[in-house]
């Protein structure tokens, strides 16, 4: 898990590294083959390939900074009514 502090002081606890989909994308980004990733995660090569093809790898920090810069880092419950 990653603890990320955004420029406005918002603290985010990101658990995306716990999900095999995210792990597969990170491993592929680091140069591992789908077969190596499938073996490491105990998944089929076709499943791993689907995860890799769904979207590119993005680190938790990059994801939250992108949302922060877009103004979407806070959920609807934080919006002014």
TrEMBL record:
Terminase ATPase subunit N-terminal domain sequence ranges: 20-53
Pfam family, one: Terminase_5
Domain of life: Bacteria
Protein name: Terminase ATPase subunit N-terminal domain-containing protein
Taxonomic classification: Bacteria, Pseudomonadati, Pseudomonadota, Gammaproteobacteria, Pseudomonadales
């Amino acid at each position: 898990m990653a603890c990320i502090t955004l420029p406005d002081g918002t603290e985010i606890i990101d658990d995306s590294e716990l999900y095999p989909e995210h792990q597969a994308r990170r491993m592929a980004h680091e140069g591992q083959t789908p077969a190596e990733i499938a073996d490491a995660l105990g998944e089929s090569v076709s499943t791993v390939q689907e995860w890799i093809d769904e979207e590119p790898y993005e680190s938790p920090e990059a994801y939250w900074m992108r949302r922060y810069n877009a103004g979407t880092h806070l959920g609807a419950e934080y919006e002014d009514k």
